[in-house]
Write a structure and sequence with these properties.
The protein is mostly helical. It has 2 domains: about 60 residues, no CATH class; about 80 residues, Immunoglobulin-like. It is about 40% helix and about 5% strand. The chain has 6 helices and 2 strands. A two-stranded antiparallel sheet has the order 1-2. Helix 3 runs antiparallel to helix 4. It starts with a strand and ends with a helix. The structure holds calcium ion (2 copies). The site of one calcium ion has 8 residues, from helix 4.
């Protein structure tokens, strides 16, 4: 019986160790949001994910289109929409989001978006074996 089990490391699961008869499987509450680093989020937001939901889609291009013509200092100025950082929101900012349209942060950075169920099945199997072992050999 190994005393260390690494479950889906880097895919939303934290490595856990356990002793005989003790199995603990811990995974992130929300692997979709927890896995990208802050640097990856920053980069992705700057690629056109202006509403910061991890996907570049119509919601983002609509926000940029609605702010078209706004400039630094305007009441409705939102620097997050100024993707090329030139002090105004215009067609060039929209073009950046359109170029990256359809991307999501998980696929873009190769981060697992859904939990991988195989490690869970393996952990379940190990857990069952440990339970049976405790029952038979106590
Ligand atoms: Ca978005
Ligand atoms: Ca701009």
């Amino acid at each position: 019986m190994p005393n260390k089990l690494f479950i889906g490391e880097g895919e939303g699961f934290l490595p856990r160790s356990y002793g005989a008869g003790e199995v603990e499987v811990l995974h992130n509450e929300n692997p979709r949001l927890a896995d990208p680093t802050s640097a990856q989020w920053e980069e992705f937001w700057g690629m056109g994910d202006v509403n910061r939901d991890g996907v570049i889609d119509l919601k983002d291009t609509d926000l940029i289109a609605e702010a078209n013509g706004s400039r630094e200092g305007d009441a409705n100025w939102n620097p997050e929409l100024d993707l090329d950082h030139d002090g105004k929101v215009d067609i060039f900012d929209l073009a950046i989001a359109v170029r990256n349209f359809g991307l999501n942060i998980w696929d873009y950075f190769g981060i697992a978006r859904e939990p991988d169920y195989l490690p869970l099945l393996l952990a379940g199997g190990v857990f069952a074996v440990v339970l049976v072992g405790l029952f038979l050999f106590k």
